[in-house]
Amino acid sequence: MTEIRTPRLLLRRWTDDDLVPLSEINADPEVMRWIAEGETLDLDRTAEDIERWEEEWDEEGFGIFAVELLGSGELIGAVGLSIPEYLPEVLPDAEITWRLGRQYWGQGYASEAAQATLEFALQDRGLDRVVAINRAGNEDSENVIRKLGMVLERDTTDPRYGHLLQIHGIDLTEYEA
């Protein structure tokens, strides 16, 4: 089982106990505002997400981690890697992504988990390149992306929803742990 520990967080694979806490995060319109269509997800759709993420772990050797606070064991969100099949122009690159409960925003958790995930991708999983796909206007995610050392490469349009997206990238040669 793949786990990553940071000073404050545990990034790990998903368990059945994570479904309800993640569905509560996914039910918050402010959390979901910048994701896909911006709609909240119910328990069933959250279960589908977790199932898809776990399948990606099995197929790709990486995926989306459950993120919990080390001190309490409380699930605070999801951070990890996925294949952005919805945006063929960036393939075969893996995308780094995050989603945290609103009460955990502004405390550096997204940056901490994303940095550990980027290091995992480039050093442990041997990926040569990782992208971050950010919906234009999402300044909070833009801040995390900058902290990761990723640079804006281009703008594009989300083929599913028509939103303006910004593609950021980093190569192994540019990465500094």
Topology:
Blueprint: E1 4-5, E2 9-12, H1 19-26, H2 29-32, H3 43-60, E3 64-69, E4 75-82, E5 94-100, H4 109-124, E6 129-135, H5 139-147, E7 151-157, E8 164-171
Parallel strand pairs: 5-6
Antiparallel strand pairs: 1-2, 2-3, 3-4, 4-5, 6-8, 7-8
Helix pairs in contact: 1-3
Mean pLDDT over all positions? 95
Largest sheet: 8 strands, mixed
Structural class: alpha+beta
Order of adjacent strands in the largest pleated sheet: 1-2-3-4-5-6-8-7
Shape: globular
The ordered string of helix (H) and strand (E) elements is EEHHHEEEHEHEE
Low-confidence region ranges: none
- What's the β-strand tally? 8
Percentage beta strand: 25-35%
- What is the radius of gyration computed over CA atoms, rounded to a whole number of angstroms? 15 Å
Q: Helicity level, as a percent range?
A: 25-40%
**End-to-end C-alpha gap:** 23 Å
Number of helices: 5
Keywords:
single chain, 177 residues, alpha+beta, eight-stranded mixed β-sheet, globular
Please provide a written account of the structure:
By secondary structure, the chain is of the alpha+beta class. Helices cover 31% and strands 28% of the residues. It has five helices and eight strands; from the N terminus they run E-E-H-H-H-E-E-E-H-E-H-E-E. It has helices at 19-26, 29-32, 43-60, 109-124, 139-147; strands at residues 4-5, 9-12, 64-69, 75-82, 94-100, 129-135, 151-157, 164-171. The chain has an eight-stranded mixed beta sheet, with helices on both faces. A hairpin with a 3-residue loop joins strand 1 (4-5) and strand 2 (9-12). Helix 1 (19-26) packs across helix 3. The radius of gyration is 15 Å and the shape is globular. The mean pLDDT is 95.
